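Weekly structure sync - notes
Attendees: PM, LS, DV (DV joined late)
Agenda: review two folding runs queued last week.

Item 1: First target. Sequence and C-alpha cells pasted below for the record.
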Amino acid sequence: MKEDEEIIGITGPIVDLFNKELTQEEWNALAIVHRMTNRLCLGIRFDWKSSIDVKSQTTPQIVDESVFLDRKK
C-alpha cells in the first residue's frame, strides 16, 4: 500500500480519537451528515472556524454558520 492511500475500516488512529473524544450524539451527527451528503450528492469540508465549504456537482459555496445556527423550524 502507498503511503498516501486511505484506509477504510473500523479501527485506526482516527477511530480511536473519535471514540475517546466524541459523545454518542456527536457520532450520530457525523452519521447524519454522511448520509445527507450522499443523498444530496454533496461534498462538505469543515476547514473553516465559522463556516462550511459545500460543493455540489455544479456549484461550490462557503456557508456561514449563522445560516444553520439561527435557522427556525
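Item 2: Second target, run right after the first with the same settings.
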Amino acid sequence: MIGFQYLANVATLKLAPERCIGCGMCVEVCPHQVFRLAGKKAEIGTRDACMECGACAVNCPAAAIHVDAGVGCASGMINEWLAGVVGNKGGGCY
C-alpha cells in the first residue's frame, strides 16, 4: 500500500540503526513498505505509513525495531471489525 499514510507524526515506530544487521526482514514483512535498505542497514522511509502492526519488530532478529503494536490504526480497524462496526457507518482510519 505505497502512498498510504495515517495521522502525521504519531507512529511509535523506532529503529536502532546500531543494532541493525541489514538482513532486510523488516522490508519483507512490512505491509506498507515503511522500511528500505540503505547500504547494509535498514532505515525508516515513510514513518507516517506505519500502521503499528508490529510485524517488523517481531521478525527483526537483531531486536533493532520497537513499535507499540496494538495502539495504532491497525488495532482500531481490527477492533471495529470484531465489534461488527466496519462497513456499517464508516470507521477505520483516515
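Discussion on item 2: The longest helix spans residues 73-82.
Action: LS to circulate a short write-up before next sync.
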